[in-house]
Amino acid sequence: MRFDKRHLLGIEHLKPHEITEILDLADQYVDLNRRQVKHSDALAGLTQINMFFENSTRTQASFEIAGKRLGADVMNMAMQASSIKKGETLIDTALTLNAMHPDLLVVRHPHSGAVDLLAQKVNCAVLNAGDGTHEHPTQALLDALTIRRAKGRLHRLSIAICGDIAHSRVARSNIMLLGKMENRIRLIGPPTLMPAGIADFGVEVFDDMREGLKDVDVVMMLRLQKERMDGGFIPSSREYYHRFGLDADKLSHAKADAIIMHPGPMNRGVEIDGTLADDINRSVIQEQVEMGVAVRMAAMDLLARNLRGGKKEGIYV
Fold this sequence. Notes:
Layout: H1 16-33, E1 47-52, H2 58-69, E2 73-77, H3 90-98, E3 104-109, H4 114-119, E4 125-131, H5 137-151, E5 158-162, H6 169-180, E6 184-188, E7 204-206, H7 209-212, E8 218-221, H8 237-244, H9 248-251, E9 259-261, H10 274-277, H11 285-307
Parallel strand pairs: 1-2, 1-3, 3-4, 5-6, 5-8, 6-7, 8-9
Helix pairs in contact: 1-5, 1-11, 2-11, 5-6, 5-11
């Protein structure tokens, strides 16, 4: 079976074998990235444009590094200084860029569905780097790769996703991906930070950390996305940490070999105790960052193969 998607817009339409194909290729790129010479010509001759309408450190940097290591010509658009600020619509911007014949377009946008709309207007491959509260597919894929490498498998695990579920595109993509791979998913957080209709997602919901973390294999913490909140979702950061922040006492209810994850950026002392975040025996947060580059390399490689009609000459495998 071949990965035959034109775009990577979300996890929702990926089949389990397509997820596995991305992760298998990403595993090979992990090896490449650990070499002294980190170079492939998988995207040689292709142009990659990164359009980030929201601030980003990890995602934008890893997409740029991924493209350059694959040999692409990479352009980072400063959207704050673009014609969007002069009133140009997203569609007009897309049509303008399309006329320049890029091959890969990486887009992060604050509005859900904006990346999908843009993908309908261009001829190149589009990768969703996060759209509103909708999806963040490459984050879910890099989380999956991190779990698979740490646990030796990506199925029949008990995984807790904790915190601001309602505003998190990371949570949404992870729920879909981990569900497709036959894992048991628990969501833990205050009722005010749970999305409506969460019972339809096939997950267990808890509002008590100790109960929710009992015997889990993976603890995935989420950032409080205050920029997306327009009301009193939590009493205070201090109270939130007391009830839902990860500390040694709450973690003790998970399995002894449970791993700790966080997509970043972290608010230490709010979502997670700093000592736990830095615990090299439990935390895989830095591994998540490393896996991000490899997963984005794999995704762009596979989309590039489709651009070239499946031709694989010069592609690192």
